[in-house]
Amino acid sequence: MTTNFHCGRCGECCRIPGQIHLTDADIARLAALLKLTEHEFIQQYTDLSRDRRDLVIKGDPASPCLFLIDNDCAVYAARPEQCSGYPVKWNNPGWERICRPKPE
Ligand code: SF4
Ligand code: SF4
Predict the structure, then answer these.
(1) Can you give the pLDDT at residue 1?
(2) CA 23 to centroid of ligand 2, rounded, Å
(3) Counting atoms of ligand 2 from 1, which one is nearest the CA of 87?
(4) Element containing residue 15 per DSSP (H, E)
(5) Does residue 8 lie in a domain region?
(6) Which residue's C-alpha comes closest to atom 8 of ligand 2?
(7) Please, where are the H alpha helices in 1-104?
């Protein structure tokens, strides 16, 4: 796996079925970007995860993340660690077929 990966913002990983889990640092960064308090951000944009262990970005089975708008991430500069870690820190079977990085 290359460490010189440059995301092409194709949005494909945003549609992988599942949930986008949030760390405390993610919440602080996203709230700051959206000029909200952390409490306001949590109220407006998060749900309890299915296993009830942490918070996730609101979404639905058809579109797991409400920040994917017109096939682009509306909070890219502050996107969660789960998002920025794909596909170098974690990935899924067949990721090479969907991920379209920028040429190095
Ligand atoms: S936060 Fe952005 S990068 Fe992460 S799943 Fe949502 S739209 Fe995609
Ligand atoms: S699938 Fe790859 S290139 Fe596309 S948004 Fe996700 S990380 Fe970026």
Answers:
(1) 58
(2) 20
(3) 7
(4) none
(5) no
(6) 7
(7) 24-33, 38-45, 81-84, 95-98
The answer to whether the beta carbons of residues 92 and 16 sit under 8 Å apart is: yes
- Tokens representing 84 are 């920025």
Tell me how many domains the chain contains: 1
Q: Which residues sit with their C-beta closer than 6 Å to ligand 2? A: 7-13, 86-87, 98-101
User: Is residue 83 a part of any domain in this protein?
Assistant: yes
Q: What percentage of the chain exceeds 70 in pLDDT?
A: 97
Average pLDDT value over all residues in the chain: 94
pLDDT at residue 2 greater than cutoff 70: no
Confidence of residue 56 (pLDDT cuts 50, 70, 90): very high
Distance (angstroms) between ligand 1 centre and the Cα of 87 equals 13
Domain that residue 67 falls in: 13-98
